[in-house]
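Bumping with the actual sequence this time:
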Amino acid sequence: MSTGRNTVAQALNIALIVFVMLTFVLAITTYLFFSQREDFKKQAKEATTTAEKATTDKNATDDFRKKLQELIGYPEEKIQSDIETDVNNLFAGKLDDFIKDKPKTFVDLAGALLDTIQEKDKLLEASKQARAKVEAEMESKEANASIALTKKDEVLKKLETDRAEEKKTFDEEIVSTKKISDEILAKQKKSDERSRELDGIKEEILKAKSLVSIKIQKDFSAKTSAEQVGLVLAELRERDKKIVETNSLLATLDAASPEAQAAVRATRPKDERIRQIDGRIAVVDELLREVIVEVPTTRSMRPGLFFEVFHGDEPAPLVSSKKGIIEVIRLEGPTSVRARISKDSNRDLIVAGDVVASSLWDPDRQLQIVVVGFVQLDNDPASDLDQLKGVIAGIGGVLVEEQIGVTLSTSLVVDAGKPDSKNNKETSRRDRAIKEAQRVGVRVVDVDRFLDMAGRDRESLEGRSLPAVSSR
């Protein structure tokens, strides 16, 4: 038992020793561990501090690098080797001549650029000063130019005022000149009208050649207009004297009945002459019984107009010597007409060269006819004035109203004979009209002569039909 107890005690002692040793070892180990741990912490802290400093330095370096790259114009992602290559190439290429023998650094480059900029600034400042000087000179010149322009405007205004005055004076002179010119033109026009009137009078006087006797006609054209007028007036006075004597004789006869009027017409002289030749026959067509007549103009001419035909060798043929009558059927041109042979004779044929005349046509005025007296175309006691009006209208004429009477525009006066002795008013009107016609030189014919001119006769009017084209 005791041995066992000793063994146990021994074992416990050993265990205790072991425990103590292990505790000591544990304490030493713990101490060492904690000691190393503190070292480790200190080292870790130092390492952390170093790492943080390295990180800060690295970040500062990176920031510096970024700012440097931004400053020199390179992007952030550009690596250093590429930047160095580009910088070397830049200095070796474009900037080599600029910095020449200076160190190839951006500081030196900046210094060179700064020097260059300062030089440029000096040049720019000099340029500004020169420009300011030029501008000052320009302002001075502009001021002088403004003064000169003001003076010029004043001169121009004065010139404009003078020009306006001159224009006003010129316009007044123009108005005055135009007024004088208009007066001169009016006088010239009046003078021309008088000249044309005188020429017309001379032509009319020449037409009066046929009114004088054949003896006077020989030297009529060689006379002056005044002498011609004197000859015509002398002829008209002689004829007026004869007409007055004849009218006195007729008045004593008091020829109012148709039978008496016919007897008076039969006693009238047959020596009435044609006053004016109107045309000449150029061509005769015996088969068609038509002729071509050459006239000065066909103005106012119309189909249905009758012309009397006379021998072409008679300058002023007698009415009684007519060869026949032709009727215009068509206008061939401005100076020619086609006519139908209405009356002719086998003993004296119408041939080329014969002349034609009509008192019922005037190219320059309308046919105006005054009818006086009592118109009686048949045995009926009633007036036949309406039938005579129809004949006048048929040849393109106009019957002049009673209140107008005979004027210088009258073409012909048709005397139908003395009215009823009880109608003093018509008698007086007839006498006044015939006397005025004699005074102004208007031709007076009786009814039968007028019907003959118009291509009619009493028989055709009594039957109210136009006369047929007569044969030979």
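The tokens above came from a reply further down the thread. The first helix runs from residue 2 to 72.
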